[in-house]
Here is the input.
Amino acid sequence: MSSDINRQMSHVSEASSMGSDGNSSEDLEEDNDYYMDNTDDLDLDCPSKADDPEYFEYEPLQLIDAEGMLNEEIETLCTRLKVNPSTAKMLLFGHNWSKEEIIENYQRDPLGFLIESHLASRRKHDKLVGPRPTCSVCCRDLSQDSFLSVACGHMFCRECWDMHFQTQIQDGVTTGIECMAKECSILVPEDFVCEILTNPKLRDKYSKFSFNDLIKSHPRLRFCPGIDCSVIVKAKECKAKKVECQACGAIFCFKCGLNYHAPTECAVVKKWLTKCEDDSETANYISAHTKDCPRCHVCIEKNGGCNHMQCPSCKCDFCWMCLGDWNNHGSEYYECSRYKENPNIAHESMHVQAREALKKYLFYYGRWENHAKSLQLEELTTEKIQTRTQKKVMNNEGTWIDWQYLMQAAALLKKCRYTLQYTYPYAYYMEKGSRKELFEYQQSQLESEVENLSWKVERAEIVDRGELENQMDIAEKRRQTLLKDFLEV
Here is the structure.
């Protein structure tokens, strides 16, 4: 049985370098640095593992470990049901690896369960007439020993089966290959495919991607989407929680394999990303790097992550997002983060409703995109802090340890802003009501403290260390509070 999996292990690292949906893991690389958990040493009175809403138990597996785990589950099913390994794999693959459910249904009605699982039929075999019957695909007269069939009994010649398998594998189909007969959905077992295939390269490709399909179908296993990373992550439960690969540093959601996206649910973030991709051209005009000062109208370029802007000409303090007076963005309520819907929109015309829907989307997209750009700018701030710290150490103005709190502050800022960015798709799809009002309140609190922290980090050398560390503590507690209330568990 081990040989069944061993065939699939060949070159599997190539397959595992792709994301869970078959997409290149380069898409994950850009955001990983923005959620690096470099704040473990901070004295922030962080919650215990039991209280941390992001805590998640998982362990990295090498390919050989995953092979052993799959072999054990396949062998268990083979023993209990008295079926061959290929059938056991197909049953596990098609039923979410729920062994007890498979065994219960099989014991109740073995043949009916196999038929329902597309693994067998009532064996209405095609009759081969004469010593040299005709293949219904290639229309050649061949000897009877040239014909083969799977569980359904449909007979085709070996060459036609081989061509069918080659075509399916080249199209990316492996575990889902079906019988060639019209309207027959019986699945072809792995041992049958490997026996018939004459192209060794395609046989290796089939084995490799078949194993990849088994891993992706297992609810407690996931390939790390990091570039050229062969690690397989194993968890006790399939949850939308953060996984950080210790081998390549990739940070992703265990449930969907996308960039970690708390507090937004997997289905919602996929819908949001699709919408952003479809409507990105419509929203491009709000992504400009310059805006006019609301007081003196001088053109200002944003060159930092903080949204608290100060006009160099008239010293006006304003919000980059809404151009409102910054003094009105107090800690009590960060009104800028809340979208104000038209209460009479239901009674307006279709044209007005469509325009209002676009306005709402642009509001949330603008803030989503702005925080993404702020993360990029704050990466530059981190590099500047590193450079300044190195100069201070070289000039004997303290040690690396003395200035490490600046790097910790920059890391925490990126972590908080990353969470804040993903609150906007969450809010966009939320239904109106008391829960959304609570979310928007906590979102505004987090946004206010993140901007305060960003302001202090960008001016770290003139800000008292105690004041900066106090702001770090407040921002992280705001983030934890929001996640405890709204992160999917």
Summary: Residues 1-29, 36-46 have pLDDT under 50 and may be disordered. The chain has three domains: 2-119+218-253, 144-188, 266-486.
